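Our consortium's second objective concerns turning raw sequence data into structural hypotheses that experimental partners can test. To show how far this objective has progressed, the report includes one record in full. It was chosen at random from the queue rather than selected for favorable results. The single chain below, 468 residues long, was entered without modification.
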Amino acid sequence: MAWRSDSSSAQRGSVSTAPDAAVSRRVSSDGAQDRLRPAARPRGKRRARGGRPIASLLAVGVVWTAVAASAPAGDWPQYLGPKQDGTSEETGLRFDWPEGGPPVVWTKRLGPSFSPPVVAGDRLVVFHRIGNTEVLECVTASGGERLWQFGYPTRYKDRYRYNGGPRSSPAIDDTHVYAYGAEGTLTCLDLATGRKVWQRPLNADLGAPQAFFGVGVPPVVEGDVLLLNPGGPDGAGIVGVDKATGAVRWKATDHGASYATPVVRTVRGERLAFVLTAEGLVVLHPATGQVHATMPFRSVYRESVNAASPVVVGDRVFLSAAYRVGSALVAVTPDGLETVWRNKENLQSHWATSIHSGGVLYGSHGRHGTDAVVRCVDWDTGLVLWEGPRGLGRATFTLAQGHLLTMGELGHLVVLEATPLGYTETARAKVLDPPCWGPPVLARGLVYVRNETILTCLDLRGPTPPQR
């Protein structure tokens, strides 16, 4: 089935409590931040798979050192990494972990949120909530020491009793960091100092209604534009925002907001953005917002979401969703989109973006955690090549060194071989309490994983086992 191109042009167009015990700060009316004192670090307990107590992931007073060669330097400046595909080119990573899992470098207690961090150099930025304040916090990636913190008021309340913190990752571009809060406040800060450059209540300005679980799409930096899917009326379904000023440069479609992050690729020499909205796939030109093509892709049930990002390889785009939607592979043509295959049963990804490698896809199949499994699917045909056992729940992935660093929602960090020959697990450790819904973030041999209130840095550098 072919989907025709859309020929129409786009319209132009004071924190009283803190998770860290020793933190105190004030937030002024314009959101300016005060300098902060170093925070106390929490301690706790957990057990290895065999049940024996081991060094706690919360006991960050324990410092590990490794006599090992570091992995090549690499940033993780946006959701799903530098290439927006959940893959890393780092090598020298150690996957033969000691009992209890990789060494803990540091752990930080956060306010509630679901936002994975981003990393540039030795700066890590994480987005969370303290009381009625959404907080952007920058710490050293290697040690977890706070560099700055910026907060602004929020009134967001989750309608389904999930936490009220931000859902989307920040994005780093050269000297600035951008963040999109749970109720639609868009913020630009100076990366070095945390100083506010500009801020605007984007969703309120556009009249965008609150989606099921608040705003969950990270800003995507493309040239001098931020790509967003606020789901506003009057053509503001997708917008391009000037990253220097916060002004809306263009608007496109009346599509509602999803939880899938836009992906930008060069196809046949042309930059195109692939946005999976609440209604389906939109392919547009990110500089102008001119729509190239659209394709319906959503559940028949109103109480549903699209949350897994498109996977774009060459001129083909893979889409997947739960709620009995399944998956599809479509080809980008000069005239629009053409369906290669569609299958309602092979891979239903609730929110995890699948990883493409070697002509196959690795993804999490299943709407509910009790039924979810990892599956390997052939890219060209959609045929299921293998299925893993239950027990991880819904999982997210980062591909590195020929392995899938897999974060199960129940708190298990698992290493799987990226092979179409079968499910092969090479390492496993319980590293956090559930729920863990964000993918692992990998930068310079360190992996950052989180649940709703804990962010932990683990050391994957090898090959020599670390010593206390």
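The partners drew two points from this record. The chain is about 0% helix and 40% strand. The chain has one domain: 2-459. Both points have been shared with the crystallography group to help prioritize constructs.
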